[in-house]
Amino acid sequence: MNSATFNQTELAKYNGQDGQPAYVAVDGVVYDVTGVAAWAGGKHHGNLAGQELTAVIDTKSPHGRKVLTGLTVVGQYVTN
Questions:
Q1: What is the pTM for the complete model shown?
Q2: List of domains in the chain
Q3: Rounded-to-integer distance, Cα 68 and Cα 33, Å
Q4: Confidence band (pLDDT; 50, 70, 90) for 3?
Q5: Tens of pLDDT along 8-62?
Q6: CB of 42 within 8 A of CB of 49?
Q7: What is the DSSP string of 3-72?
Q8: What is the dihedral of CA 6, 11, 16, 21, to 10 degrees?
């Protein structure tokens, strides 16, 4: 696993806008969703890349965490 760490401010930079990669955090893990068609432009069903989305994926996502399988892990999400 990559040793990079992201806090809320750092993760927000990876919003899929203006040529930036699109990253999302779920349960302390940061995933790269840049190449996922559903995340084009850093947006997916009202959610924005560059955010911590554990509650969203656990309570509102019809596919749940299984969609994370196969995504590239780019680091860990830390709160501070």
A1: 0.93
A2: 5-77 (3.10.120.10)
A3: 9
A4: confident
A5: 999 999 999 999 999 999 999 999 999 999 999 999 999 999 999 999 999 999 8
A6: yes
A7: --EE-HHHHHT-BS-TT--BEEEETTEEEE-TT-GGGGGGEETTEESSEE-HHHHHHT-SSGGGGGTTPE
A8: -10
